[in-house]
What we know:
The structure holds two protein chains of two kinds. By secondary structure, chain A is mainly alpha-helical. Chain A has helices spanning 10-23, 33-37, 44-60, 66-83, 98-107, 111-128, 154-160, 163-176, 182-185, 198-207, 209-225. Chain A has a domain at 46-80. Chain A is built from eleven helices and no strands. Mean pLDDT of chain A is 54; it is low at 1-41, 87-100, 102-171 and 189-210. Chain B is mainly β. Chain B has a four-stranded antiparallel beta sheet, with no helix packed on it. The longest helix of chain B has 6 residues, at 306-311. Chain A: This is SERTA domain containing 1. Chain A: Residues 1-21, 190-213 are annotated as: Disordered. Chain A: Residues 40-87 form the SERTA domain.
Amino acid sequence: MLSKGLKRKREEEEEEEKESLAVDAWWLDPGHPAVTQASPAVTSSSLFDLSVLKLHHSLRQSEPDLRHLVLVVNTLRRIQASMAPTAALPPVSNPPAAPSMADNLLASSDAALSASMASLLEDLSHIEGLSQAPQPLADEGPPGRTVGGTPPGLGALDLLGPATGCLLDDGLEGLFEDIDTSMYDSELWAPTSEGLKPSPEEEPGKEEAPELDEAELDYLMDVLVGTQALERPPGPGR
Amino acid sequence: ADIISTVEFNYSGDLLATGDKGGRVVIFQREQENKSRPHSRGEYNVYSTFQSHEPEFDYLKSLEIEEKINKIRWLPQQNAAHFLLSTNDKTIKLWKISERDKRAEGYNLKDEDGRLRDPFRITALRVPILKPMDLMVEASPRRIFANAHTYHINSISVNSDHETYLSADDLRINLWHLEITDRSFNIVDIKPANMEELTEVITAAEFHPLQCNVLVYSSSKGTVRLCDMRSSALCDRHSKFFEEPEDPSSRSFFSEIISSISDVKFSHSGRYMMTRDYLSVKVWDLNMETRPVETLQVHEYLRGKLCSLYENDCIFDKFECCWNGADSAIMTGSYNNFFRMFDRNTQRDVTLEASRENSKPRASLKPRKVCTGGKRKKDEISVDSLDFNKKILHTAWHPVENIIAVAATNNLYIFQDKVN
């Protein structure tokens, strides 16, 4: 589901959308007492933001409290279902990868991976406008006992909605903009064996830029999902 | 003093154990009734204190393991010593608590101060004699049951066979033999093949008090499964499934969270069990799976505040509950250092407060009332004035008498019936 950034087919989404609507149809009924009673101050979207914050916070723990995580995720799915019933639903009935992240976290710890994932998530949060939401509560959840705190992965991103996919496509470029690649571009580092010249090599690279980005995106996805060891950051060939 | 994380009377009620966040266990003993001190009337005093668990570091996963004691369970007493199981998130330990009130004197091979005597100087033999000494209570770890839980242990329960016990974490329940530490049997496993499909965790588990083949476990979705170990080695398929259908008129975004069961306890008779969810206590007849026989409202006035309680995470608080010895009364905690007691026979309930400021020692506790409506009467407290940091999560009831222990953060209160 998560790997390679593939989206499920539209038909599947529609089927599942119908299923979830059938089960939880009351969310959409404006006459329902629970819906009408919701005070205007507490909107679905603010609850959504709050839940996403809680999810992030929970996943950032070195050893997330599974019960808290599962309850927040399930609540988030309910809120999400009620917010966008007709639009293309993000994989609501497709359970989030958040717990799998937790499992992976338990299985491995890689400081470099952690750092890159943490920064990626920070950037996404800002881009999504979540910084407008109330500050994360300082003392919620178990005390952070991090040693190179392994942060969340794509599971959280899944819940943020389909926009996230596009976000990564555009956002990746921006994220790596500040890396100075001049060192790698210089001839000093080019292989000197005969028949191989740096310039011709560069050009094909640039021509294939779109495909390279795809490949890099796949690579990054794999890294984030933890299926691939982080060898070196995806690269300079842009 | 550290925050108390568990409270438990032993089978006779003479001993009361508490565990705290710092990994310490403190055991209180009831004083013998003494005619010359009529006021003591069986008071509890500190009997033994020991460090049960220390913080650990899992180097493989780069994780710190908390020393907080999650649960203590006593074993039935079989000889002069007392045994209890205490557990943190990952490791269960069997502790032996024994008394030493005699000391041997007159050894042949060593002096009174312990130094070895020169064997060639010994010309006569004597029999050492036992002399009384000041009572010393020693706690020693007899078994350590480790490395069997990937997730956080939330429950332990001693079987009625007195030979085995279970330990439960978020996804699995293991069966141990008290004598064997290098092996445990997994009897329940709800971990999905794909962790992405995880939607439910185990929140509590307990063995039936009389039938050694029966256990129950509760979930974060508000369900209880009863398993019979005779039917198969792996109890993934339950024998009974207890769930009350949701009331459509009170559904909300928080329905699942507030239905999550934080504690499950069999009655002493073994005929009933009770579950504690966020707002209520439900009593179930084991023969009826469709709905509880009683539902007791603990603090229904919080239903309108669920959003704030979700925001400050209080909605995730895990309250425990307990039966009295006769199964005629139930007790559970709430906020503002309030705790609630329900009498099943008279259908009456009362709210009391565990606080030094609001009650004097040996004075009767005054019933409290939370006002929900507009006009607050004198002595009532409004919902908005409740202190949500003062939570009573852990309570215990003496197995025979009307003595209760209430843990209010880092203070332990012991209340007794007033003797006329």
